[in-house]
């Protein structure tokens, strides 16, 4: 066997594995040792590539095994499959990491310090944003429902059936031309009236159908452009509401359940009458202004002289025997009577509205305020489309509450 060359230059290998690369001069090793090293190296590479097998553990080379034998053969490191031990520090084996990319992450990871069981942990402020449920404001719908519950009572189903959005009568295929649309909706209103006349089993449903007919009439009038036609149609609608108000009395109802809705039905009827009366005053506003100018001119020309009559009247103690007559121009009298009729509609509009506001109970006022919140505030000179929307939404609410069946008087 050929003796080893440059044996004095070989340094004693370290007992621990070094990360630096060691270059070996294979020409000085025997052929058997070179083959053995190649086989071990191939096994090492195949073990690294396989993922199914557990990671190989390698014992650190010792100083005794690294020394060459006297016969010139070198001993290599031995590979074993040790048993896994939970004791990390006492095990002589070191786990080989699968990927070098995981090592920097493992170094950066820090374990939290251990706290004593006798010591209370103080919660640290979190940088995460708070939950949306923690800082939310009360919904206006929830607050409105709670307010209605206070007004109507816990046993009443009005808060649950209250509409959340405004609505109009569901009419399909309305003509685009306004005059044709008015005639089309008026025909539907007449059909609603005939259906209400035939309802005899339930008085409250009959009144609801009549109120729906009034709403259809108002909806048809909202499409009218001719002031004269608008005045005539609104006058007929107002007369129809007066007829329904005479028929709908509290004595005509048989149960307390129906009387629970009757007062709110009367509020809606009076609101319709007040708005229609103002439309009658406002429809012929141009002709009203012209008559007012003519009255002022005629009044200045034909002013009667009643000073002598007044002096004689003041001297008398009683006025029973005094014949009080004033001569007025005929044209002036006609204009004044026409103007009085027009202003009578304005007077009744404000009177009905004000009397209705004064006589409303908390339950009726709660319904009006809720409809003002959902549809927009209804006022005496509101346009007819808003009146239609407001009234139809309120009627839908009453019908849904009535059909619920579980409602009891508050």
TrEMBL record:
Bias (Low complexity): 62-75
Pfam families: AFF4_CHD
Start-end of Polar residues biased regions: 1-12, 76-92, 113-129
Endpoints of the signal sequence: none
Taxonomy, superkingdom: Eukaryota
Domain (AF4/FMR2 C-terminal homology) ranges: 177-290
Residue ranges, annotated region (Disordered): 1-141
Classification via InterPro entries: AF4/FMR2_CHD (IPR043640)
GO CC terms: nucleus
The protein's name in its UniProt record: AF4/FMR2 C-terminal homology domain-containing protein
Organism, scientific name: Steinernema carpocapsae
């Amino acid at each position: 066997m050929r003796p080893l060359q440059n044996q004095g230059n070989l340094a004693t290998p370290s007992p621990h594995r070094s990360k630096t690369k060691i270059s070996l001069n294979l020409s000085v090793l025997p052929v058997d040792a070179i083959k053995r090293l190649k086989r071990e190296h191939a096994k090492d590479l195949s073990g690294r590539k396989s993922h199914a097998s557990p990671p190989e553990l390698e014992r650190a080379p010792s100083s005794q095994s690294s020394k060459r034998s006297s016969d010139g053969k070198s001993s290599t490191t031995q590979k074993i499959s040790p048993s896994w031990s939970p004791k990390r520090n006492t095990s002589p084996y070191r786990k080989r990491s699968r990927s070098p990319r995981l090592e920097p992450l493992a170094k950066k990871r820090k374990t939290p310090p251990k706290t004593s069981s006798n010591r209370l942990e103080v919660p640290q402020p979190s940088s995460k944003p708070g939950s949306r449920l923690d800082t939310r404001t009360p919904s206006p719908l929830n607050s409105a429902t709670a307010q209605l519950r206070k007004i109507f009572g816990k046993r009443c189903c009005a808060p649950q059936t209250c509409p959340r959005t405004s609505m109009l009568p569901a009419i399909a295929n309305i003509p685009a031309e306004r005059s044709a649309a008015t005639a089309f909706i008026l025909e539907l209103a007449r059909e609603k009236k005939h259906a209400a006349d035939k309802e005899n089993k339930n008085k409250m449903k009959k009144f609801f159908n009549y109120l729906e007919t009034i709403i259809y009439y108002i909806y048809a009038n909202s499409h009218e452009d001719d002031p004269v036609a608008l005045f005539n149609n609104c006058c007929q609608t107002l007369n129809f509401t007066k007829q329904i108000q005479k028929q709908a009395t509290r004595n005509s109802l048989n149960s307390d359940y129906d009387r629970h809705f009757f007062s709110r039905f009367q509020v809606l009827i009076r609101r319709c009458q007040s708005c229609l009366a103002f439309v009658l005053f406002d429809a012929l506003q141009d002709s009203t202004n012209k008559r007012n100018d003519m009255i002022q001119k005629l009044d200045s020309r034909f002013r009667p002289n009643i000073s002598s009559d007044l002096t004689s009247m003041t001297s008398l103690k009683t006025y029973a025997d005094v014949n009080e007559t004033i001569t007025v121009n005929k044209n002036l009298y006609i204009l004044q009577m026409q103007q009085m009729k027009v202003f009578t509609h304005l007077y009744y509009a404000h009177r009905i509205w004000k009397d209705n506001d004064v006589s409303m109970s908390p339950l009726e006022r709660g319904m009006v305020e809720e409809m003002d919140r959902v549809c927009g505030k209804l006022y005496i000179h509101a346009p007819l489309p808003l009146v239609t929307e407001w009234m139809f939404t309120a009627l839908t609410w009453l019908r849904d509450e009535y059909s619920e069946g579980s409602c009891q008087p508050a």
